[in-house]
Amino acid sequence: MPMDGLTVGFMARELDRMLAGGRIDRITQPERDTVILVIRAGSENRNLLLCASAQNARCHLTGSRFANPLEPPALCMLMRKQLLGGRVLGVRQVGGDRIIHIDMDTIGEMGDHEPRRLVLEIMGRHSNLMLLNGEGKILESAHHVNAEMSRVRQVQPGLQYAPPPGQDRLDPADMTGEDLLAKMEAAGVQPFEKALAGAVSGLSQVSAGEIALRVLGPGGFWGDTEEEKRAVCEKTAAFFRTLPERADPRILQNDEGETLDFFAFPYLSQSPERQLPRQTLSLAAEAFYGARDQRDRLRQRSASMVRLLKTQVERCEKKLSLQEEELAGAARMEEYRIMGEVLNANLYDLKKGMREAVLPNWYDPAGGTITIPLDERLTPSQNAQKYFKKYQKARSARISAQEQREKTLQELDYLEGMLLDVEKCVEESELEEIRGELVRTGYMKRITNRRQQRSLPQSRPYRYLSADGIEILVGKNSLQNDRITGSARPEEMWLHAKDMPGSHVIIRCEGEIPQETMRQAALLAAWFSKGQRSSMVPIDYTRRKYVKKPSGAAPGKVIYTHQKTAYMTVKEADIRSMKEENQTGRKGPKRKE
Predict the structure, then answer these.
(1) CATH architecture for segment(s) 5-141
(2) I need a labelling partner for 127 at 20 to 30 A (CA). Which of 183, 326, 412, 495 fits?
């Protein structure tokens, strides 16, 4: 169960076993709330991740690589000064709660041994990472908490560290059955697992439910008499004492292979077929948190971009509505022209001061008349000229409105495409490419914060392997669309959703393409388009040699000919069933020459 007190205890024991005695060789801080310690222990380097984010606070060994800022934050620089070259003395959990202490022996500027301690508090939105000196004073922390933010406890450099306020719960490491019984009875009449979660420090409802199942069996009834309840509490306390020897890490997956959870030992409350073993709890934690943390951080970083794009889309839609009204108003221009010409042809029958004129309308096939309102202050000739001026004004307005409407439609298409590209982002490099494009087009300002100017690798498209073993590329944004289309060979197949924003799709095969590969590529083109949730999405496909990029066109914009159209209805299960290639692994089958 992700980082409740039970899991933290297992993690602390695992880290203590693997890191104790290790030397701290390197420290980085890829995020404001995340620090990586590279520790040389057991003849190998181990990367310890300490994260104090509100959503994914955790600690474990990691094999992932992180992009670091050009300038390290203050916490990182201080930790380098204080901890580099130091030795890890031990890692321990505090009071069975979600608090980890990492004690270190460091060498001061005068060559003296100086104790230091890292404190990681895994407390949801109150999570924090602190560096303490030997007297327990805070040297620095990931999050500063002043008196205005909390009257209960402040976290500031120079203050004495104080643990979070106690919740009057039992430490599972040394509690007795009598202690547990007294605490649970004091809570009143409650289901066993709820009373247990309220009595034991750091225990989540999920873990309490699993322990209840193991102690009581199905049903969860823990007795009527005092003796029966005491026996159950003794059995529960004994179970907690055996926890260290139960370590057998597992990850819980669904039918699509997504990691839904991880456990320190197999859970009887979950399907055994979906619980896959992992060598260490750190590997299990990374399987769960890796993609989730990256996804959450991307969502946070893209939030302002999404708001900007949605605001611009709304602006375009309002502008388009006004332009449509202008065009509707300009529809009377032919009526103004006819009135002017009829007046000009009948000037001899008209006099100044008339309010209207009923005259023969030779434009009417039925030979009827037309009633023309007149300005009584003007001569007949001036009235005719007035209608010609109205005609010219309406004609000019129509031409201008049509031009502006076309520009607005192009801008709306561009913005909706950018919005779709943001939704497809799975890596920070992809998000930064979109940000760069929006800066280039003037929708966003260039970022001058050096932390956000770090060098990121070029983003990569999705790579799928069809049922016939043929590689299919899918662009995640307009720049990727340009790259994969520009690098494709003339006879390779190109696909795109018709008349809507979407990804370019390339089938890396120049000969005859199997029907199943064509179907899968068309499904991908439909899924990665604005029509994702629609039925019968039109998908155009043609050979790459018929796709051209006009000079000066925006990224991802092309024109094409010789296309055919297929209509696809796609479901998420269709996409999940396809095999996505490992981006850093093999590159798929060779293209046919």
Answers:
(1) Roll (2.30)
(2) 183
